[in-house]
Amino acid sequence: MSPIPDDPARYNSFLTDLLGVMAYGELSAFERLSSDARYSPTLHDRAVLGRIAVVEFQHYELVRARLEAMGLDTEAAMLPFQPSVDHFHERTRPADWYESLMKAYVIDTVSADFYRAVARHVDAATGELIEQIQSAEEATAVLQERLKAALADDPRLASRLALWARRLLGEALTQAQRVSLEHAFLGGLSGLDDAGARELVRALTAELATNHSRRMAALGLAG
């Protein structure tokens, strides 16, 4: 973990932004998964997405509790990020169950990678919170299993889902870059100047893309 900068007020300002975007991301994931469950071909599949949605809401509650413990209003912390996150989900509406599964998988794994990378630059308590939220491997494993089963049942899905996953990755990376640079929390938490922050974001983007390609290869898809 990086030490807290000499200016605690400045650090806490960037930390508020980080927790704000995390909170709204988790709340949006809950809403998205709950809504996408309607595409489910079976009641079992609907229950799978519903269970994952509940986990996302539990994560939101953890971040909310941390913000409130800091004496901060959760809604106020989330509001700056609502337009960009909502716009992201509008641009990436799934067309069917299979695209819903892939979106849940890609966003879940890329987000986890992003926040784990951020955790290198925060205080120990925040790092533990991030790890607690991003350590739920069960949901990721379930999504991966369902995608593998779908691809095995219908190999024709491979090209469509590979293309959809690439689009999702591109949108997710653009979103991560925009949020990181516009709100400057990654550089602020790291104590870097603008040039250093941009270099850090570029390196992080490359890391996220590499990890995504590895996961797509595990599914038998081109990254």
TrEMBL record:
User: Do you know which Pfam families this protein is assigned to?
Assistant: MiaE_2 (PF13794)
Please give the superkingdom of this protein's source. Bacteria
Quote the InterPro entries the UniProt record gives. Ferritin-like (IPR012347), Ferritin-like_SF (IPR009078), Ferritin_actino (IPR059125)
Domain (Ferritin-like): residue spans on this chain: 9-189
Q: What is this protein called?
A: Ferritin-like domain-containing protein
Query: Which organism is the protein's source?
Result: Arthrobacter humicola
The taxonomic lineage of its organism, from the top, reads: Bacteria, Bacillati, Actinomycetota, Actinomycetes, Micrococcales
